[in-house]
C-alpha cells in the first residue's frame, strides 16, 4: 500500500472514530437528560443498599463458633449407643431412613428400630423434636 493511501486510511479511520465517539457522547447526553430522575433514584437506592449492608455488618457481631463439645455424661445416662448416635447425626443431617441405611450399611428396618429407641430414650415423638432435644443436650452439633 502506498504511503499516501495509508495516510488517507488512517485519517478516515480517525475521522470515523471521532464521529462515532461524538454520536455516543450525544446519545449519552440525551439519555442522561431524558432519564435523569430515574438515574438519580437508582443511584440513591444503590447508595442506601450499600449503606444498609455496611451498617448490618457493623451491628451484627459474628462470634466465632466454639468447637463442639459432646455431652458424654448425657449419652451415658440416656444409654445411647454409638450406632444410635450415628443414626441421630444422620437424622440431624436431614437424611431419610433409606439414605441412613445406605450410609451406615444397615437395613432400613434396623434404622427404624434405632430411631424408635432414640425416641424412647429422648422421650420425644418425632424427628424434629428428637433433633431439638439432642441439640439442647449437646449430643449433636
Care to describe what's here?
With 141 residues, the protein is mainly α. The protein has two domains: 57 residues; 65 residues, Winged helix-like DNA-binding domain superfamily/Winged helix DNA-binding domain (Arc Repressor Mutant, subunit A, Orthogonal Bundle). 76% of the residues lie in helices and 0% in strands. The protein is built from seven helices and no strands. The protein is elongated and about 95 Å long.
Instruction: Please report the number of helical segments.
Output: 7
Write the CATH fold name of the largest domain: Arc Repressor Mutant, subunit A
Total domains = 2
Q: Residue share in helices?
A: over 70%
Principal-axes geometry comes out as elongated
State which percent range the strand residues make up: under 5%
The CATH homologous superfamily of the largest domain is named Winged helix-like DNA-binding domain superfamily/Winged helix DNA-binding domain
Beginning-to-end CA distance, first to last residue: 77 Å
How many DSSP-defined strands?
A: 0
* Second CATH tier, the architecture of the largest domain: Orthogonal Bundle
Average pLDDT over all residues: 87
Would you identify the regions where 5 or more consecutive residues have pLDDT less than 50? none
Element order: H for helix, E for strand: HHHHHHH
Structure classification: mainly alpha
**Sheet bearing the most strands, described?**
none
Provide the CATH top-level class of the largest domain: Mainly Alpha
Amino acid at each position: 500500500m502506498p504511503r499516501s493511501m495509508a495516510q488517507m486510511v488512517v485519517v478516515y479511520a480517525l475521522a470515523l472514530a471521532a464521529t462515532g465517539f461524538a454520536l455516543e457522547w450525544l446519545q449519552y447526553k440525551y439519555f442522561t437528560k431524558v432519564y435523569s430522575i430515574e438515574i438519580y433514584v437508582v443511584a440513591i437506592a444503590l447508595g442506601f443498599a450499600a449503606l444498609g449492608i455496611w451498617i448490618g455488618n457493623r451491628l451484627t457481631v459474628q462470634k466465632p463458633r466454639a468447637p463442639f463439645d459432646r455431652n458424654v455424661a448425657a449419652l451415658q445416662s440416656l444409654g445411647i449407643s454409638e450406632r444410635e448416635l450415628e443414626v441421630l447425626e444422620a437424622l440431624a443431617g436431614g437424611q431419610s431412613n433409606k439414605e441412613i441405611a445406605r450410609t451406615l450399611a444397615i437395613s432400613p428396618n434396623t434404622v427404624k428400630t434405632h430411631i424408635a429407641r432414640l425416641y424412647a430414650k429422648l422421650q420425644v415423638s418425632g424427628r424434629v423434636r428428637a433433633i431439638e432435644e439432642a441439640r439442647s443436650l449437646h449430643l449433636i452439633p
